[in-house]
Design a protein that fits this description.
The protein is of the alpha+beta class. The chain contains 3 helices and 5 strands, in the order E-H-E-H-E-H-E-E. It has one domain. A 3-stranded antiparallel sheet has the order 2-5-4.
Length: 92
């Protein structure tokens, strides 16, 4: 999902997703909460951090493969995101 935005005007975010979520993203061209899930989605600021969460946190829960997706949002939104202090995660 690319917007064609210049890096100076955009924030790149990454998320580890299941095949079901990847299919859903493709079907609606965006993100939405699943049944019984939070209203927000957690993203990281690097593909490496998303891979860490996939490998160390999510995969051990159900042993299912995950895909890292990249999203690009305008900095006007990226600068206002909630940021965690441990591994960099952003709540959208």
């Amino acid at each position: 999902m690319g917007s064609g935005a210049d890096d100076d005007d955009a924030t790149r975010l990454y998320r580890a997703v299941s095949q079901e979520e990847l299919d859903d993203i493709g079907s609606i061209d965006g993100f939405r909460p699943g049944i019984g899930q939070l209203e927000t989605k957690l993203f990281t600021t690097s593909a490496e951090d998303a891979a860490f969460f996939a490998r160390e946190v999510l995969y051990p829960l159900d042993q299912r493969p995950l895909t890292i997706v990249e999203v690009i949002i305008p900095n006007v939104f990226g600068e206002r995101l909630f940021r965690s202090t441990s591994k960099v995660t952003l709540s959208l």
